[in-house]
Amino acid sequence: MAESRSRTISLGHGSGGLLTHDLVHEVFGARLANPVLDGGGDSALLEVGGARIAFTTDSFVVSPLVFPGGDIGKLAVCGTVNDLAVAGAVPRFLSLAVVLEEGFDRDLLERIADSIAHTAAAAEVLVVTGDTKVVEKGKGDGVYLNTAGVGLLRPAAPGGAASARPGDVVLVNGPCGDHGAVIVSARSGIELSSGLQSDCAPLGGLVAALYDAGVTPRFMRDPTRGGTAGVLAELARGGACGVEVDETSLPVRDEVRGVCELLGMDPLFLANEGKVIVVVPPEQAAAALAALRGHPHGTAAAAIGAITAAHPGQVVLRTRYGGQRLIDMPVSDPLPRIC
User: Fold this and answer.
1) For residue 240, pLDDT beyond 80
2) Where are the domains of the chain?
3) Closest to 223 (Cα-Cα) out of 127, 91, 329
4) CATH 3.40.91.80 correct for 161-327
5) Residue 8 CB partners (closer than 8 Å, separation 6+)
6) Is the pLDDT confidence value at 4 over 60?
7) Which of 45, 120, 196, 311 has its CA at a distance of 20 to 30 angstroms from the CA of residue 319?
8) pLDDT tens per residue across span 244-283
9) Average per-residue pLDDT for the chain
10) What angle do CA 188, 178, 20 make, to 5 degrees?
11) Which CATH architecture has domain 43-153?
12) Rounded to an integer, what distance in angstroms lies between the CA atom of residue 132 and that of residue 137?
C-alpha cells in the first residue's frame, strides 16, 4: 500500500495494524532476520543454559498519562506481563526505562512509580534493572516508558496460529473494547457517567488458571492495538483455516457500544489491555471456560466462535441480523498512542 512505502513515518505506522506490520517487516525484519526474530511473536522463545524462556519488550506512550482504571505505569507492567503470559510463560522479571521531559511534575512521577510497584507486586514480578533519561522541554511529551520482561516457558506453550484445527473453540475472557473506549472518551471530552474503566490488568494468574485446569491452549494472544479484530485476523492469516465468530456471543458493554455509536467506531477494533483470545480443542472448551470464569479477570468469559476448514485465511462474522461480513486486520488503529 502507498502509505507503507512512504519515506516518512505517520502515526498510523505505530498503530499495530497493517501499516505497522509492513514497516516492521520491510525496515527491521529485512535487516535483522534470524530464526528467533522471524517467529514474529510478541515474545521471543529462547533456550538459555538449558532453561526455556520467553523474552519481550514494549514501549508506552499513552495519552493521557492517567485515565479511568489506570495510568502509564500500570499499563507498562500489564502490557509486558501479558505478552509473556500469552506466550505460555510464567512472568518473572522486568526492566524499566524512563524517558522524562524537562519540567515534568515530580508528584505525578511518584504516582506513576507507585503504580508500577503496586502492579508488579500484583503480577508477582520483580523490576530488576532500569534506566532514566531526561530530554529538553518540548522534546518529549511528559514521560515515555519502556519495559522488557523475562518469563519461564511452560512445557505446553501454545504453538501459535498454525496449531489451530477445525472445530477448535475461540474464547475471550471478557468484554471487548473497554480500554479503547476509555481513552477515546478522555480525549474527546466525553464524560462517562457509567463509571466505565480501562480493563488494564495483569493476566499471568488467569493464564495459570487455564493450565491448572488441564487446558493446553493451541493459541493465545492479548488483543491490544488493533483490538479483537486484529487478533482474529492474525489467527486466520497465520494458519491454514478460517475463523467464524458469532456477533451475539461477543461480550461488549453497553457503555462501549454507546461511545462507538457516538464516534463511528467498532468495538471489535478498539484496544484492550486485560483481555486474551484463547483457542482450545473442543473437548477442553468447557474446562477452559470454567477456569476463566473462576478467575476475577474472567468472570464474563465467553465462547465467541470456532476454527473452520471453510474460507481459509478469513474471519467471518455472523451478525445478529443473520448476515455475514468479513473481518480483516485494520490498516491502522483509529486511536494513535493507545498504549
Assistant:
1) yes
2) 1-35, 43-153, 161-327
3) 329
4) no
5) none
6) no
7) 196
8) 999 999 999 999 999 999 999 999 999 999 999 999 999 9
9) 93
10) 80
11) 2-Layer Sandwich (3.30)
12) 16
